[in-house]
Design a protein that fits this description.
ten-stranded parallel sheet, 28% strand, 4 helices
């Protein structure tokens, strides 16, 4: 479908600079722009690309000041990043959704599948499963016994939802993610480690997106919770009995140990690690590779192991890089002091 600059501006509440009748039917990065495509500019580092881009329309922030004339039509908005996200969502919603049950899928006779679903080849749906309306299950998805999946949820190939686990409405589970594998529970004994049965479940609430090869473990008892609006990147590990608060986001390779409670609207960078049985407050931000051994209060912005305030951390890193030089200077000063002491001692004699 084609959209004019005028139509797009109305959708994103923007202001057109240039030809309001120019049309686009595709998206492109500003540095790879092409005729008939729309791009966006939100990072100042990419500003120079706007002078040579071939894109027909570029979304730009109201605050951007351009030094030279540009070829594309501009649409000025409060936030170009938010505007393009809205357009991409619209573009995705216009794509026709697959429907129907493939002849190679297996659905247990006791399972219930809602209206307008797509069940791809080699999907396995176990006994007592309930699948909501409008769901899309790609090839080789497995849904275990008595698990439930809400309306309009999409599950990509080779993802697994174990028995009795619950997935909410409007969720996206990417390829290879595992919901409800056993938590890592073992009791030391004279003969090794005795497995502690994990008899709980996982509850994924509405509007959650879980990345490829991410694992959310079932609880020992009760439920592991991933609350509404949570976004987990690829290769994230959520251990048993954790509770991840609403609208929290985690980058790749974050690891959360068991029985940890994470607050709402938190943001964790890549490879953050949290110890078990701790509480993280609301709106906490943790920089990449932070290791957290204890509780954190609401609103903290920390980085490092153990984590410290970000400004203090970066000041400390600046000092750390100078340690070899500081050590040599200290050794030289020690030598000079020793020589002075010897001279003073010799004079007294």
């Amino acid at each position: 479908m084609e959209f004019s600059a005028k139509q797009i501006a109305e959708l994103v509440q923007g202001r057109v600079e240039g030809d309001e009748n120019v049309t686009v039917s595709d998206f492109a990065k500003i540095e790879e722009g092409k005729s008939g495509a729309i791009s966006f500019l939100s990072n100042p580092k990419y500003t120079h690309f706007i002078y040579n881009t071939e894109s027909s329309i570029v979304l730009v922030d109201e605050s951007v000041v351009l030094e030279n004339e540009v070829k594309p039509t501009l649409i000025r908005v409060k936030s170009a990043y938010e505007a393009v996200a809205k357009l991409l969502q619209l573009y995705q919603s216009l794509k026709p959704k697959k429907k129907g049950i493939d002849s190679l899928a297996f659905i247990d006779p006791t399972a219930k599948v809602g209206k307008d679903c797509y069940i791809g080849p080699f999907v396995a749906i176990g006994p007592g499963v309930v699948i909501g309306d409008g769901c899309v299950l790609h090839p080789h998805v497995t849904i275990g016994e008595k698990a439930t999946v809400g309306n309009n949820t999409e599950i990509y190939s080779n993802a697994v939802v174990y028995h009795h686990c619950k997935v909410g409405n409007n969720c996206i589970l990417h390829a290879g993610c595992v919901i409800g594998a056993d938590g890592f529970g073992f009791a030391p004994s004279a003969n090794g480690y005795d497995k502690i049965p994990q008899i709980g479940i996982v509850t994924i609430e509405d509007n959650v997106e879980i990345g490829a090869n991410t694992c959310v473990d079932r609880s020992t008892m009760g439920s592991t919770y991933v609350r509404k609006g949570v976004k987990l990147d690829n290769l994230v590990q959520i251990a048993h009995n954790t509770d991840i608060g609403e609208n929290t986001v985690m980058s790749a390779q974050v690891g959360i140990a068991g029985s940890t409670k994470v607050g709402q609207w938190c943001m964790f960078g890549g490879q953050v690690g949290l110890a078990g049985h701790i509480t993280i407050g609301d709106r906490v931000q943790l920089g990449a590779q932070s290791g957290v051994p204890g509780n954190i209060k609401d609103g903290e912005q920390l980085i490092g192991t153990p984590p410290m305030p970000m400004k203090q951390y970066f000041r400390s890193q600046a000092v750390f890089r100078r340690l070899p030089d500081m050590y040599r200077e200290m050794e030289a000063l020690k030598k000079q002091i020793a020589e002075l002491q010897n001279k003073v001692g010799g004079t007294k004699e």
